[in-house]
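This week, look over our next protein:
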Amino acid sequence: MSTIKTNQLAHTANGASVYTLPTTDGSTGQVLQTNGSGVLSWVSLPTPGITMIDQWRINDHITLTTSKTAVSSNWERNDNNGYTGIGTGMTESSGVFTFPTTGIYLVRMFATTYGNGGATTAMHAQIQGQKAGGSFADKAQGSDAAYTTNAYGSIANEIVWDCESTSGDKIRMTAHANNANRWLLGSSTVQRTGFTFIRLGDT
């Protein structure tokens, strides 16, 4: 049997590209990819479907103030029976969430609120994002209001977030109220206030 050995391939058309082959074989399932200048290398195809889902919540109530404040304590990953994350999840430190890999993420925030005392109950919650290690800024905000005492409410926000750097791009929740005696409700067994993170694809 004859063997053809070469380190480059060229099309017969005049002026067509010359392709330089890699010097080693790839792994099972890999394909050849060009760098746009004719150099070929072995790469793995993207994994189809959703590769990461994670869910977090606060496990105790947070008292709100009239100043916008980061929700920095009482965070835990959903650990209820039946919950199953996908892939490597988020990392949390003092309410700041770090992504495991770069990519496009759907970030959903949900909050259950409660007001006791005073005729007006109004609360606000925000998704804040940090890019490239800069300052946190509001990316989404929701509010609820009820003109009664002992009132429950809910807030839902979501954003599509491009994590370009796992060290510099982060997410957190902030909240505030129009007056005292207002809470974000937490629980260690029920999803009341927290985040859901879903990686949609590559950045």
In short: The CA atoms of residues 39 and 165 lie 27 Å apart. The chain is about 0% helix and 50% strand. The longest strand covers residues 103-115. The chain has two domains: 8-43, 53-201.
